[in-house]
Inverse folding.
């Protein structure tokens, strides 16, 4: 990453200056209590809706703060950034507004929605590598080759100061917060929030959250060794190497870094859609995932988290929501062994109907099965009002002599 040992962390004055600088060009997003989530957790749960920024992420704050401080000569050279998506859109959008040419390097697996939106803001997009770190290396290479000004996604005092404006708004709305839970990728948002919160309320608890598959910041500040890598729903915080400056800041200011599983991330994304009627990407839901995964830790507290981004691929979101219905027992896939003879399918569907359950899809498997040649495996995908209705279907089928197995996600 960027060699930042000579850089000093921004101060609360830098954050306040950033707030004045970007005022009117970014959204002061809502900060609201969620009654339902508060009841579920047993705490007063506040949500900061940064997914309602124009580019659907908090990244606009730091990007704009950085761009506004470029010299005329730097603006004329153009800027370049490396990003899995949200920083890319932020730089592209505000660079276009300010008349600054922008090039963005993104990892090849970046969700299509993020690539097209970045291009839609007028930036030239270069796809390179499998991870953020690959895109970062390419962007640094192009910086030297073309003379661009590099806009780091997190390890930059001006970027961090811009991110810190989130905390100014949070504590202005809810000054008596006990705890703030923040997703961590490279650490820019958590660093900005930590600097601001410690200045305004020194005793506040500050907890970072990383995907279980990418515990890079936890290892950096707690000096531990853990496996790193894999496919995560939270690709926006899938960073192998956190910032040097951000690591220094968080080692000094953060109380803890929690890790959340993929299942917890999926559940949080689905709950935000179902309860708050808001779309949040995996990285943006990481804070809520952490709160839900350890309710006892937050019980009775006034706790806030930042829904830091909402740029999730629509197909992926659909998968997450359907998988949540499966885990809730609302949708099931039943493998029913039956004699391959007339009336077998009718008998099965009759039992499903009797339980008041709806059939979504039916498939026969006569060849690829371990059943005897005269038998067939009938796969029934069905949807019910609750898990007990699916249990009723299984009980009715087994009482009628069918052997039933339920498919599972776990």
């Amino acid at each position: 990453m960027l060699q930042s040992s000579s850089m000093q962390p921004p101060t609360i004055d830098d954050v306040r200056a950033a707030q004045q600088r970007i005022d009117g060009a970014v959204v002061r997003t809502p900060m609201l209590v969620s009654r339902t989530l508060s009841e579920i957790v047993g705490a007063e749960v506040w949500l900061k809706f940064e997914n309602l920024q124009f580019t659907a992420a908090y990244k606009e704050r730091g990007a704009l703060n950085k761009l506004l401080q470029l010299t005329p000569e730097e603006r004329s050279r153009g800027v370049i950034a490396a990003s899995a998506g949200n920083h890319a859109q932020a730089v592209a959008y505000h660079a276009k507004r300010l008349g600054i040419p922008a090039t963005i390097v993104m990892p090849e697996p970046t969700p299509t929605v993020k690539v097209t939106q970045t291009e839609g803001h007028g930036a030239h997009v270069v796809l390179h590598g499998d991870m953020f770190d690959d895109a970062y290396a390419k962007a640094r290479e192009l910086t030297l080759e073309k003379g661009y000004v590099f806009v780091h996604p997190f390890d930059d005092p001006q970027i961090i100061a811009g991110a810190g404006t989130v905390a100014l708004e949070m504590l202005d709305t809810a000054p008596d917060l006990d705890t703030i839970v923040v997703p961590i990728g490279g650490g820019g948002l958590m660093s900005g929030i930590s600097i601001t919160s410690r200045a305004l309320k020194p005793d506040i608890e500050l907890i970072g959250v990383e995907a279980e598959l990418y515990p890079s910041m936890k290892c950096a500040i707690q000096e531990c060794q853990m496996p790193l890598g894999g496919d995560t729903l939270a690709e926006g915080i899938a960073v192998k190497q956190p910032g040097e400056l951000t690591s220094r800041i968080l080692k000094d200011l953060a109380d803890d870094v929690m890790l959340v599983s993929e299942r917890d991330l999926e559940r949080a994304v689905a709950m935000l859609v179902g309860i708050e009627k808001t779309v949040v990407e995996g990285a943006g839901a990481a804070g809520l995932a952490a709160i839900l995964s350890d309710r006892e830790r937050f019980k009775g507290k006034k706790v806030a988290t930042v829904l830091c981004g909402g740029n999730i691929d629509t197909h992926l979101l659909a998968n997450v929501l359907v998988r949540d219905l499966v885990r809730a027992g609302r949708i099931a896939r039943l493998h029913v062994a039956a004699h391959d003879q007339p009336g077998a399918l009718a008998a099965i569907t009759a039992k499903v109907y009797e339980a008041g359950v709806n059939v979504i899809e039916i498939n026969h498997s006569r060849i690829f099965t371990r059943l005897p040649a005269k038998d067939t495996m009938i796969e029934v995908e069905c949807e019910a009002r609750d898990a007990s209705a699916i249990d009723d279907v299984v009980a009715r089928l087994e009482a009628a002599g069918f052997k039933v197995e339920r498919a599972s996600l776990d």
Observations:
- The mean pLDDT is 93.
- The domain at 12-59+163-323 is CATH 3.40.50.1100 (Rossmann fold).
